[in-house]
Structure prediction request, 226 residues.
Amino acid sequence: MFSFFRRNQKESEQCFIQDNPIDTELSYKNFIERVDDQLIEKAIDEKLLILNYLIDSVEIDMCSSAVLEPFISHCRPLLEPFPILFYDNDEIIRVYREKMNVSLSTSHVYVCPWSPKRQVSNILYLNKKDWVFDVSNHKSYYYSDLNLLYVYNGNHSINAGRYFKKGAVLAYEVDMIPLYKDCTTDGKALIYKNNQTISDFSDFRLAVLFTLGKYRWEINHKHIND
Prediction:
């Protein structure tokens, strides 16, 4: 995993390093503290610009890591970045909606094409061909507030479409607003309002992404209602 958010143990160096085990809570805490510092006394439009920049940057880093990880080690399948349903006592809360058309050229595609050989063969195959959506193979969820497309089937062909910026998929839309309203995170998990853990984060950048998205939603929500 390529991550630039790991803090050096020497406080005086004030830098991030890679190739060290990630301390999830510390990395999350460091990141959000520095974001908070940059948002202080900024105008609303400036805060939103900063958050948009950071959300895009985190997603680019996270999505690139997922694509390249198979060239480094045997990778695990990607889990859903955020839950699409969860239980509130005995009630099932679903946060996904109807399917929608999502462009592979404009969304951040969170996909793990797990075989280097198949990655390369799909890139070579699609180089001079059109990308065609296959309803029986291409499966994904789209977190529309974050412009994040999570792919759980058809990884290698969708990754090739992502690279060449060709085509679009039909993906279930996931509504982040109920999660922003009722959840918090400690950097390790998504915690529902009843103190129930509804999702463990496999990557601290997902916790960062959730918090940045929640910040942005809170600013927009407050601005609309003022």
In short: The chain has six helices and twelve strands. The first helix runs from residue 24 to 39.
